[in-house]
Amino acid sequence: MMKTIWFSLLLASTACSKKEPTCEDIYDHTLSLMPAELKDKVSGSKEDGIKKCEKMSPEARSCAMDAASMEDLMKCPRK
To answer: How many domains in the chain?
Structure first.
């Protein structure tokens, strides 16, 4: 019983302490997934990328952060 309560509290505290990624975090993660030739073209437009991110839905932001590849990223909602 005590282990169950302790585990529940641990999960709750972990969930509450998980911070929402910023648009800068999302931009950096997205950039890390890009091939080198595309990365070079996009890296100079960080401000534009962050502005686009700020207009995205929470679902789209979450999808972008969870993407493990460009294929995953392309499946994310655009808005």
So the answer is: 1
Cα 60 off chain centre by: 9
Q: What are the tens digits of pLDDT across the range 27-71?
A: 999 999 999 888 888 777 889 999 999 999 999 999 999 999 999
CB 50 within 8 A of CB 24: yes
Report if residue 60 sits inside a domain: yes
What gap in Å lies between CA 1 and CA 19, rounded to an integer?
30
| 43, part of any domain | yes
Rounded CA gap, 79 and 59, in Å? 9
CA angle in degrees (0–180, nearest 5) for 48-53-54: 100
Residue 56, domain extent: 19-74
SS3 73: helix
The whole-model pTM stands at 0.70
